[in-house]
Design brief:
With 239 residues, the protein is α+β, with helices and mostly antiparallel strands. The chain is 33% helix and 19% strand. It has one domain.
């Protein structure tokens, strides 16, 4: 979702006022079968959980969205290698149903399919660039730290925390990382101990999207809707 600064500013200003699409917001239907659009950009990944509607103006309803990107470079490797969550939201009427957790489970699963030089799976961490504003998302990272279902990935020297200054562990360059905010929800790279049934759910949801796409050109509609709704909810959080 590449946006000009002018478009981004307009979307945020509009979102601070009111829901720009109240009719769309009421289209959530828990009885409709869901599908998942997965945009695989290698170092950038986006997931759109949605269902179809009978509304010609809004043929798709994006239930939840999550995007992630690989952190670091040759100098700052951020416990190689780690995806960080760039943005996520769940529609208000679809909250408290586990959809955010499902997308995080999918994100951990996809991250695990990538391997570093030691053959270890990539990890997942919170937004290291602009920080995590949503209270629920911040709480989720705290739960990961306490849960036996997740583990903190380590460098070859055994360090498991990002070193933003280079002074915390000066002898270990693999944990060096960069941030532009003091609102990071976590400074660790996590992975799940087991992905359970999420791989089968992922296959089923992506399969449903592929079936939907045979008769509809949905990708552009889904990404545009998700972009608009993300900036609406992001604006609500920072207002």
């Amino acid at each position: 979702m590449k946006l000009t600064k002018q478009t981004l500013y307009r979307l945020i200003i509009e979102s601070l006022e009111h829901d720009p699409e109240p009719k769309y917001a009421n289209l959530y239907d828990p009885t409709q079968p869901m599908a998942l659009l997965h945009h695989d950009g290698d170092t950038e990944q986006s997931f759109y959980l949605y269902h179809l509607t009978n509304n010609p103006r809004y043929p798709v309803f994006v239930i939840a969205y999550l995007s992630m990107e690989v952190l670091g470079d040759d100098d700052k490797k951020c416990i190689p290698y780690t995806f960080h969550v760039l943005g996520t939201y769940t529609e208000l009427k679809a909250r408290r149903r586990g959809f955010s957790r499902t997308l995080y489970d999918v994100a951990f699963y996809i991250a695990s399919k990538y391997k570093n030089q030691q053959g270890k799976p990539y990890g997942l961490t919170s937004d290291q660039f602009s920080g995590t504003t949503d209270v629920a998302d911040t709480a989720a990272w705290s739960k990961y730290e306490q849960s036996s279902n997740y583990y903190k990935r380590k460098t070859a020297l055994g360090n498991d925390a990002f070193d933003y200054t280079g002074n915390l562990t000066p002898d270990d360059k693999d944990d060096d990382c960069e941030t532009y905010t003091d609102k990071v929800a976590t400074s660790h790279s996590f992975q799940k101990t087991s992905h359970g049934d999420i791989s089968q759910l992922y296959i089923e949801l992506v399969g449903s999207h592929n079936k939907n796409s045979k008769t509809n050109n949905l990708k552009d509609r889904i990404t545009v809707v998700a972009s608009d709704r993300f900036f609406y909810y992001y604006g609500q959080e920072i207002s």
